Amino acid sequence: MDQYMLEIRDLHVHFRVYEGISRVLDGVSLDVRKGERVGLAGETGCGKTVTMKIVMGALKIPPAIIPKGEVILDGQNVLKMSAKQLLQIKGTKVSMIFQDPMNALNPVFAVGTQLFDVIRFSNRHTGNGGKLSKKEILNRAIAALDEVRLPDPKRILNSYPLELSGGMRQRVLIAMALVNGPSFLIADEPQTALDVTIGAQILDLLSELVRTKGISVLLITHNLGVILETTERVNIMYAGQVAETAPTALLFENPKHPYSQGLLASVPRLTGGEIAEGIRGMVPDYTAVPSGCRFHPRCDHVMPICSQKKPSLLLVEPDHLVGCWLYAKEGGVK
Amino acid sequence: MYSILVLVGLSVLIFIIARILPGDPARLALGPFASQEMVARLRHQMGMDQPLHLQYVAYVRGIFHGDLGLSFQTRRSVSLDIAHYLPATFELVLVAIIWVLIIGVPFGVLAGRYKDSWLDNISRVVAFVGVAVPPFVVGLIGQLIFSYGLGVLPTTGRLSLLTPMPPARTGLLILDSLIAGNFRAFGDALIHILLPSLAIAMTGIGQITRLTRGSVSDVLGKDYIEAARAFGIPNRYVTFKYMLKPSFIPPLTIIGLTFASELGNAFLVEQVFSWPGMAKYGIQAILRKDFNAIMGVILIIGLAFVAVNFIVDVLAGYVDPRIRIQEES
Amino acid sequence: MTADESTFSSVGSEITVTRWASFKDRVGRSWYRFRRNPISLAGGSMVLLVILLAILAPYVTPYPKHAGVFTDFSSAFQPPSQSHWFGTDEVGRDVFTRVIFGYRVSLMMAAVVLGISVPFGIFLGLVAGYFGGRIETIIMRVTDIFLALPPLVMALAICSAFTPTIEKAMLAVAAIWWTWHCRLINSITRSIKTEEFVQASQVIGSSHLRILFKDILPNCASAIMVKITLDAGFVILVGAGLSFLGLGVQPPKPGLGTMISYGSQHLPIKWWLTVFPSFAIFFLILGFNLLGDGLRDMLDVEAEGM
Fold first, then answer.
1. Closest CA in chain B for residue C259
2. How far is Cα B54 from Cα B48, in angstroms, rounded to an integer?
3. Which of A119, B257, C197, C244 has its CA 20 to 30 A from that of C13?
4. A147-161, B22-36, C84-98: range with lowest mean pLDDT
5. Dihedral pair phi/psi, residue B169, rounded to 5°
6. Closest to B295 in 3D by CA, of B139, B85, B87, B63
7. Is B248 an 8 Å CB contact of chain A?
């Protein structure tokens, strides 16, 4: 479909581990429309990182097994791409922002060296032919640093990661991600490793940049507040399954899946007198997953069918899908 | 600099130990048949009838003039003796370091890159064996197999008896023979230095292989390698540039220790191969209680160690900007 | 007892019970990991074998008298055979017997050297790390002096002052060895010193000695264990080197380094005089290294140096 930047259809990912087979992703389906900012939220260990790595082509296939599913990025199936093809789209079509800027930058090279390398190599693939001159690379680097509002670009280029503050490093990483003009951006918890105020600045910067450039974004985080502020649609993920998908505002107002309800209820509020509730139980072991709906052991509304069959995503209102048997009577099947 | 202080402390320590020793070195030097007068004269000549601290002061003053005293045995200047024997040891240790670098480092890199492969398992065996086997054993077994058994390598000395020595420019036979264009001597010197230098290098090879392997494997798991790949930098470039440089930092920091262990090993290996070096001279000095010679050798070794550590520190700061930056702040 | 007191004592005994249970649990789990690690198993069995052989030497060897003063020139220089597995040496003694007794000497050397240097080094390291300031500076400067030379060279230098005997050799090596443990413990102590549980002890008013032994020392335990095991191999290596050079074990006592030294004069014809002691000492050192390495993996510890 032309309007989709990313379509993931029924993706299954397993890992062969010492104890057996770890079935991490169990039929994940989600999409990102062009120009849209979509969130992928869930607690640690729910499979968001694996999903992200698959889209980036960064998952090593021998330990990982993909028995079923498609991942279509701007019309092409990523799973069927050769290494060479993947190399062509990395940085140029799809790019990534990492969680911890200190770890994502090589500490023994100057920031400029790394930025120049990104510019240099990605340009070879976008068919402009030939290599860029040093001057051209330098200009592009300075322009990229300008865009992320870093003053004194020449000094930054000559600095080592250790010499920069956390916020500056993340800006540099954003510059590296955007310098080759990708149309799709995956942001993995971009604000988590930073101080709250700096993190907010970074998110603002990111939002503005993607808006002006029309980049589609998949934002991955466990922080619901960030989701609310920066995304238009959100997917809630639990234990390798998509629990609920909806426009952000709608989901926060009216969460349908028991897990989403539990998540939102457990966010502490400054007003009101009660302590926030948690969700009872624990995230499952992926080598011995619960049958049917993976959330059923922890669900307060569990029904017999929940442990027998996995619920498909059901449409409960326009653009609002829930993977829960509670809504089977109401809506149709997607 | 602090290291000089340490050297001073060392010299005091050894001086005290050496002077406390029981038995009369002058008597030892002259033998049991020398008369009492001769012994007393030698003692006076050596300044041994002075109180201890005065002896030390005189000694230190001598150092600044390049004079390390006279050997009890040879009655020659210790500095001259050491200058005579030092190049042989220096050449040996130098070649040993080269072995460590050209065997240990690439092996370690490959082992770390292809972790748990057969290559990696071999590297682990090499690492353990290298560190566990005493250097003199390596030398002796090497002689057994290659010299006596296969007849390929010589057993002792730096050159065959019939090969004339090239004119001494650097004292390093390998370089001297090249400079003089004497390729026969060059080849001869090479096969003579092969086994002893390997014997010295075994410990270092084991250490460096293991450390490099660990370091490479560590770096490959780091986020910045994944990030570089995610930004579209080709894998080969990532391996050679982004992985190698950070991986070399831990091995670099222990090169100093490796050098120290090699110096220690030299004492054993020079015995096995009758290598006419400073270490062998030192052993003989120890056995005959020639403590001026002993002091001289100790000081030179201490100095060499300080120099090597200094070079390593500078190199480390150059390769790893984190060290440089922290030192500046 | 009042209600409070009885609650306290029952809680106290519960705590004692759980502490013992958790200790047993930890030991059990460590042993399980040890068993599963092939390196530590190999190393452990090698070391165990040698220790057993050494302890039972008089009973295990065919010619225990050959370990001491013994000559039988008619049987000198015999190659390995049924009656003499490792052959005989220059005065007719059975090499196999002497190798096993040589193991005794090596192990004893390791035990004595480490037994002296480790407690000394640990104590100084604790004091230096904990009190810091000038005390630390002095202690660490002294260690620097001892570490200014490679260990073998330093040991040689110290040995040079005395007539060569094995006791002097052991003292010389011990005199150097404490420095490494001192450094290791010093760095661990420095990093732990600022932890909260240490501060808690200080606030309660525990004496310094008590803090050192109850709070800080247990945290060094795994590092010390790994280091001692690796040290054993290294001490034996240095000891063999000293003996080889004539400064350690003196004849007619059986010492592996000494035997190799004598044997080297008779290469290559009487190769067994060199080969078997060489392999024996390699076996022992390798065993300790493997064991120490396996322990390190198991305890997940980073020991300094090798």
1. B137
2. 10
3. C197
4. B22-36
5. -105, -55
6. B63
7. no
Q: Could you tell me if B77 and B70 are in contact, meaning their C-beta atoms sit under 8 angstroms apart? A: yes
Tokens of A85: 């093809």
* B window 6-25, beta carbon within 8 A of C: 6-7, 9-10, 13-14, 17-18, 20-23
User: Computed from CA positions of residues C125, C127, C133, C136, in that sequence, does the dihedral angle turn out positive or negative?
Assistant: negative
Site of tokens 């139980």? A281
Q: For residue B251, what is the DSSP state?
A: H
pLDDT at C107: 92
H helices, E strands: number in chain C: 12, 0
Candidates A234, A250, A185, A178; CA nearest to A35 is: A185
pTM of the model: 0.81
Cα–Cα distance list, A70 to A32, A78, A234 (Å): 14, 8, 20
Name the maximum alpha-carbon separation found in chain A.
68
Token pair for B69: 């005293």
Q: Which two tokens stand for residue B239?
A: 């391996």
Q: Is the distance from CB of B311 to CB of B304 less than 8 angstroms?
A: no
Is the ipTM higher than 0.90? The answer is no
Contact A103 B222 (CB under 8 A): yes
Q: Please report residues of B whose CB lies closer than 8 A to that of C157.
A: 14, 17, 286, 294, 298
Report yes or no: A119 and A180 within 8 Å, Cβ to Cβ.
yes
CA angle A276, A281, A287 (to 5 degrees): 140
Contacts of B234 in chain A (CB under 8 A): 87, 121
pLDDT 10s digits, A76-120: 888 888 888 888 888 788 888 888 888 889 888 889 999 998 888
Decide: C141 and C199 in contact? Cβ < 8 Å.
no
DSSP string covering C6-75: HHHHHHHHHHHHHHHHHHHHHHHHHHHHHHH-HHHHHHHHHHHHHHHHHHTHHHHSS-GGGGSS---GGG
Backbone angles phi, psi at A39, to 5 degrees: -100, 150
